[in-house]
Write a structure and sequence with these properties.
Family: Belongs to the camello family.
Mean pLDDT: 83
Keywords: Acyltransferase, Membrane, Transferase, Transmembrane, Transmembrane helix
Distance between the termini: 19 Å
Number of strands: 7
Domain N-acetyltransferase: 54-205
Protein name: Probable N-acetyltransferase 14
Strand order of the largest sheet: 1-2-3-4-5-7-6
Function: Probable acetyltransferase.
Low-confidence stretches: none
Shape: elongated
Order of helices and strands: EHHHEEEHEHEE
Amino acid sequence: MAPGLSVREMRDDEKSLVLEMLKAGVKDTENRVALHALTRPPALLLLAAASSGLRFLLASFALALLLPVFLAVAAVKLGLRARWGSLPPPGGLGGPWVAVRGSGDVCGVLALAPGTNAGDGARVTRLSVSRWHRRRGVGRRLLAFAEARARAWAGGMGEPRARLVVPVAVAAWGVAGMLEGCGYQADGGWGCMGYLLVREFSKDL
């Protein structure tokens, strides 16, 4: 674990800083996710069909070609920002929490929520590390804290098992590698037109 690093609940005066950290984290992956989504064969066919249709309405061939791509990229980015770029309300597991260096610098944020059904365990709804503090053990420290909270919550609620689920964008290979190294396994996800955009990693605790 990273030395001199603690995890505590976020204070009100840290909310704006944490929001900026979340938004920066989304920006780091949204272009790669958009590229992944829009280079799948069904998406390419839809973009080609849209461009062909627009050529009858627009005088500019270049505009007809680029407009569908621009709108599709904007839709993917707005969807990711709405889902991960904001702070969720406090849930049954408390939080949000922040990782703090000994100097007082907030370097990461974590939020958890109960699963939808009994036995689903807990879910990570936000997990982001400041770009200035990455690859220094902050993500692993937050993950260990999340696992401890999930165990305590499952025991207190009489859940049949303690389990933690972490959603990861397909382009976030570093996060996926960290989870696999901590014993998590890919277990489904969600996406569009049959292609995954977000994978879900889970672990029984």
